[in-house]
Amino acid sequence: IIPFRGEYYALKPQMHDLCRTLIYPVPDPQFPFLGVHFTRMIDGSVECGPNAVLAFA
Q1: Comparing C-alpha atoms, which of 55, 57, 45 is closest to residue 2?
Q2: Full-prediction pTM beyond 0.90?
């Protein structure tokens, strides 16, 4: 097992209106993962992620 961790990035407040709903990438059978996506949070902020970073201790 190779451990990964994901990081999310916050969009700048002036960019929050660009995303009103969840936005996911088109699935790719070669990469059966959810992929980087945009999520609008309950406070109106928008996060983009996760990326995949090796999580070695």
Answers
A1: 55
A2: no
